[in-house]
Amino acid sequence: MRSWFFDPYHQEPNISAAEQASWQFQVRAATPDDLIGIAHIIAESFHGHDGFWGWAFPLLRLGIYEDLKYRLLSPAPHHVCLVAIDTNAASTDNLVGTVELGVRFSDSWIQAGTSFPYLSNLAVHPKYRRRGVASELLISCEKFSHEWGFQDLYLHVLENNHQARQLYFKLGYKVHKLESKWNTFFFGRYRQVLLHKHLSMKVD
């Protein structure tokens, strides 16, 4: 499964208390009709239109679309793509955030060992950041994990993504494992941090 990791606080506009109070959204499972909107939000969140990614944006969005289409139309037993919907939006184009949750294995190459739910592709439309969308999507993933019979949830975040890590820590995630420094030395990128949260017995 290809994954993109997103800082839900990056370049978010300032929102007044009145605007936050008047805004409402709901989280639901994605449908095929949501694919275009989901692909656009992920592509815009992780790559944007500026610089090198500007000319490549349509290709990136298409690649994301095809990945999502395959997973959505050929779902694994434990897989869900969630979307957050702005219930106050006047138009039908009201998708504001998304996240995926699936079950992985401790040894993904041979599909053996202990299985665990893994969260990926968390992204929020720039206009709707800092409004609690990311938190609600994460909480919804916890509910699905409980329904599937799991008590633990995992995700990756880049080591230098301090604001995203702050959000995860606030919601109870803890560092489980750091990627080897050899990868950063040879490939010149920041390390990924595997975060873990042990879920309580009951999720409201």
Quick overview of this protein structure:
This protein is α+β, with helices and mostly antiparallel strands. It is 35% helix and 28% strand.
Q: How much helix is in the residues?
A: 25-40%
How many β-strand runs?
7
Strand content: 25-35%
CATH superfamily grouping of the domain at 17-149: Gcn5-related N-acetyltransferase (GNAT)
Q: From the coordinates shown, what is the CATH architecture of the domain at 17-149? A: 3-Layer(aba) Sandwich
Order of helices and strands: HEHHEEEHEHEHE
Can you count the helices? 6
How much is the average pLDDT? 79
CATH class type of the domain at 17-149: Alpha Beta
CATH fold descriptor of the domain at 17-149 = Aminopeptidase
End-to-end gap: 29 Å
Identify the overall geometry: globular
| Helix and strand composition category | alpha+beta
Radius of gyration: 17 Å
- Describe the sheet with the most strands: 7 strands, mixed
Uncertain segments: 1-22
- State the strand order across the main sheet: 1-2-3-4-5-7-6
What key attributes describe this structure?
disordered N terminus; alpha+beta; 204 residues
Explain what the structure shows.
The protein has 204 residues and is of the alpha+beta class. The chain has a domain at 17-149: Gcn5-related N-acetyltransferase (GNAT) (Aminopeptidase, 3-Layer(aba) Sandwich), CATH 3.40.630. It contains 6 helices and 7 strands. A 7-stranded mixed sheet has the order 1-2-3-4-5-7-6. Helix 2 packs across helix 3 (52-73). The longest helix has 22 residues, at 52-73. The radius of gyration is 17 Å and the shape is globular. The model is unreliable at 1-22 (pLDDT under 50).
